[in-house]
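Lecture 7 notes: from sequence to structure.

We start with a single chain of 303 residues. Read the sequence below before looking at the structure.
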Amino acid sequence: MSAPRFRTIATLIALSGIVSSCLGVGSDATRLTLTNVGRIPGINATSGAVVVNGVRASLANLDGPVLGTVASGNRVLILGDSILAGTASRYGGAMCAGLVPLGWRVAIEAEAGQMVGFGRTVLRDRIYEGWDAAVVFLGTNYGGSAELYEKDLTAIVKSLAPRPTLLLTASLFRPTMQQVNQVIRIVASKNPNVSVLDWSTTSVQTGVLNRDKIHPTDAGRQVLVSSIASALGEAPTGPGACLPSKYTDDSLVTDDVMPTSTIEGETSTTIAGVTATTIVSAATVAPAVTSTVPAATTTTTGR
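Now the structure, written as C-alpha cells:
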C-alpha cells in the first residue's frame, strides 16, 4: 500500500438547526443523514460527532480508498466473530440496515468465538459466488502467535484479491492484542487491495464497548455499522439486499454477549426460493467528505 492516507469519515452534513427544521419533531428528530451512511435509527449529530442514543462518538478513520469507489459490483462478503455476528439478521440486522440503502448486496458470515482460520473456511465454501468486495474482522479471538495469525490473514487477503477488502483493527482488551493490530497493518501494507478501518481507536470512546472491552453496546454497534458503511460508501451498482448466511452457530460463546435489540425498517422477502432481507429506507447519501493528514508512525492503540 502507498503511504497511508487517513480519511476523516465521521462528518456532519447538516448544521443542527437545519437538521431540526428538516426532520421535525418526534422519533424522526433523532435521525440524521450521515455521509455515506444514510438514515440510521437513533443517530443524531452535534459538533462534528455522532450521537447514538445519547452516546457521543466519532466514526472510525479509514486508511485507504473507500471500497465502493474501486469495487466492480455490489456483492460484499463480511467475515467475523461475535462482534460482527451481532450485526447479522439473527440479531436484528443492523449491518443490512446500514449497507442495503447504499446499494450493497450483503452476506454476513460471522460466528461467536471464531478465530482467524474461520475466514479461510468460509472462503473455501463461498469464494466463487461472485463477490465484489469484502470486510474482515477476525482478530479478537487471538491464539497468541503473530506468525500464525499473519499466515492466516495473508491467506484470506490473497484469496480475496484483487477484490477491495476492508480489515478492522481489534480492541486492546489485553496487551497481546497489539500484535494483532500490528499484523493487520503489515498485511495491509503488502496488499494494495486492502483498506484498514481503525476500530481499535474508535472503540475506546465512552459508551461504545461493554464492560468486557470487546463487545459493542447497542450504541457502539451502530457506531461500528456506520463506520463500515462509510468505509464502503455507495455501491457502484444496485439495488441492495441482505443475503442469507450459511454460518450461524454461536455456541462457542456461552456468555450473554450477543445483542437483543432490532433495527426498524427490516422486511423479509423471498427471491427465487432464497430468503433475503430488504431494508426499506429513505436514505439520502451525500458525497464523502474526507481529509488527508500526514502518515504517522505510532503504536497501535485500543479499539
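The two ends are 22 Å apart (CA to CA). Keep this in mind for problem set 3.
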